[in-house]
Amino acid sequence: MSNFLDLNKKIDESRQGEVTTIKNKIKGGKKLFLESYGCAMNFSDSEVVASILCDNGYTTTTDEHEADIILINTCSIRDNAENRVRKRLTNFKNRKKRQPGLIVGVLGCMAERLKKTLLEEEQLVDIVAGPDSYRDLPNLIIEVEGGQKAVNVLLSREETYADIAPVRLDKKGVTSFVSITRGCDNMCSFCVVPFTRGRERSRDPKTILKECQQLFDNGYREVTLLGQNVDSYRWNMTSKGEIKDESIPTTNFAELMAIVAEISPDLRIRFSTSHPKDMSDEVLHVIASYENICNYIHLPIQSGNSEVLKRMNRGYTREWYLNRIEAIRNIIPDCAITTDIITGFCDETDEEHADTISIMKEVQWDFAYMYKYSERPKTLAERRFEDNVPEELKGSRLTEVINIQRDNSHIKNKFQIGKVHKVLVEGTSKRSEDFMSGRNDHNTRVIFPKGDFGVCDYVMVKITDCTTATLLGEVEEILKPSK
Ligand code: 5AD
Ligand code: SF4
Q1: How far is residue 231's CA from residue 168's CA, in Å, rounded to a whole number?
Q2: Annotated domain spans of the chain
Q3: Which of 3.40.50.12160, 3.30.43.10, 1.20.1420.30, 3.30.70.260 is the CATH number of 20-152?
């Protein structure tokens, strides 16, 4: 550990000159407004961006009207995500007319996907920076201040921002994301992520442990280990499992979770997202053996039909997925499982859709994120198949799926009435000042009256009522911190 700290110090010292020069170039006290769209990874990346720019003389603001620079961290996963960002950028373009000197930049997946179009053809922004180029932002800002437009959309095979201590933008100080992998090698045929976020790479476990320990020391009580595909995390191993460097220990995802869970029994561990083909029994046994690793697995299925899964290039069948569900339920009997479902993928027939409905009834996921298929440029599906399910049919299939899931979620929640749940208190309820809000082990929101406890405490709550999405209850006990 101490070698590792020394190494970090050396990197910091060697960068000192370069950092100071850039700091001097950016005139002090400028305000940065960061807005994030899309997945948790984007929100986590924005904290890396904030860290890089705060190190270079910026301060963050939550008021866009006082900002000198506005950066939008964007998502390309579906067409409507991009449309929302475009509307926002058009607003900012108008603001720029009133506030000359305001710098607007696009970060993340749209930056990578659209590259120069946003800058040149549409003239919406000054900076375009892809997910692997955030260290370059101070230079890009200087280019813009010098009257140029600035782009860096190079993807990297190594960048994990491992040495950067993110600036936490969520000020509650209870829960935090910690990114452990970047990119994705899976090439699901519908997905744009491998093109916008590049090849999969895992972050040095020592830096992950250090970041989690610091969060715990600063009072945080929950970390979510993040990646596009966390269960394929591997350190010092090739994708075939060969050791890269004999002098360094290897670490897989199960081992990484155990290391992080050892920080303290009072630090909750979550992780997202897992891919069914990589969800090993070893991971499940680690979850089962640590009380502080939450019994909650997000395991996207996408479709319940094996032929559709093949067209989606998901690498598993309906039977394989059901086998993983069985393994979860055997190894971790009380585990919440959630999923993602896409309706109306290319060539999806009524019979194939019926298989999604039947698997929903069979598995009874606790919660699901459900989407209509949205064709994305450059993806395998765009090149190989026709987006031939009519919008209306995609929509009616989606409605059917949503209705079944709503019933499943409600039944699951009703089953909790009378049971007692351990809840981490996160803050005041959005609906009422008299109530507090937190989540249980299963990641379900729980609302309960205020009492003699505060944010970051663990409380035992007896569930008295529920809605489809929320549990309501009374605090029975305030837990003391572990020794
Ligand atoms: N259309 C619809 N949904 C998509 N997702 C990813 N790409 C698409 C697309 N082209 C969904 C998948 C994935 C989640 C993050 O977004 O369900 O698991
Ligand atoms: Fe996209 Fe598939 Fe990778 Fe998830 S696993 S990010 S859906 S390519």
Answers
A1: 25
A2: 20-152, 175-414, 420-478
A3: 3.40.50.12160
Ligand 2 in reach of 191 Cβ (< 6 A):
yes
Protein residue whose Cα sits closest to atom 2 of ligand 1: 373
Question: Is the pTM here over 0.85, yes or no?
Answer: yes
Tell me how far apart the 2 most distant CA atoms of the chain are, in Å.
65
Please report, in tens digits, the pLDDT of each residue of the chain (483 residues total).
333 333 333 333 333 333 333 443 444 579 999 999 999 999 999 999 999 999 999 999 999 999 999 999 999 999 998 999 999 999 998 898 889 899 999 999 999 999 888 888 778 899 999 999 999 999 999 999 999 999 999 999 999 999 999 999 888 899 999 999 999 999 999 999 999 999 999 999 999 999 999 999 999 999 999 999 999 999 999 888 899 999 999 999 999 999 999 999 999 999 999 999 999 999 999 999 999 999 999 999 999 999 999 999 999 999 999 999 999 999 999 999 999 999 999 999 999 999 999 999 999 999 999 999 999 999 999 999 999 999 999 999 999 999 999 999 999 999 999 999 999 999 999 989 999 999 999 999 999 999 999 999 999 999 999 999 999 999 999 999 987
Contact in structure between 273 and 296 (CB atoms under 8 Å): no
Indicate the CATH number of 420-478 among 1.20.970.10, 3.40.525.10, 3.40.50.360, 2.40.50.140: 2.40.50.140
Residue 199 Cα to ligand 2 middle (Å):
11
Which ligand lies nearest to the CA atom of residue 300 in the structure?
1
Q: How far does residue 275's CA lie from ligand 2's centre (Å)?
A: 8
Residue with CA closest to ligand 1 atom 14:
340
In angstroms, what is the span from residue 371 Cα to ligand 1's centroid? 7
Q: Residue 5, Cα to own-chain centre: how many angstroms?
A: 27
Q: How many CB atoms lie within 10 A of CB 316?
A: 19
Distance CA 308, CA 314 (A): 9
The CATH classification number of 175-414 equals 3.80.30.20
